[in-house]
Specification:
By secondary structure, the protein is mainly alpha-helical. The protein contains five helices and two strands. α4 packs across α5. The relative contact order is 0.11.
Length: 129
Amino acid sequence: PPGRLLGNRWSPRARRKRVRLLPWVRLLAGAVLMAVATAAALAVEVPETRRDALLHLLRHDCGSCHGMTLGGGLGPPLTPQALAGKAALALEATILFGRPGTPMPPWRGMLSEAEVRWLVEVLKTGVAP
């Protein structure tokens, strides 16, 4: 039957299917490895003492425009529900480069890219009061 193992070999049809799937399997495996590596890198790149300072900045500096509970104010809300459909890279770019024509300033000179990635992760999962 097509798509079955014949003795010690795959049938031609099964071999073609296998060959077509291999790039997708490799891509998926690569994406999973990247996600795991990124999560591990985030934990290492931002020291605990700096995390406390970043949370303070988030609550007070960001909170001055986005609301003290980050539920919105002059700026839009930064709650997990409000950010659910937003790509992490887009949020990182907004923090790093600001929004021209709006009160949102660029934070690139004050925050590293690793710190911004960490802040975005915190925002997407929720900030404890």
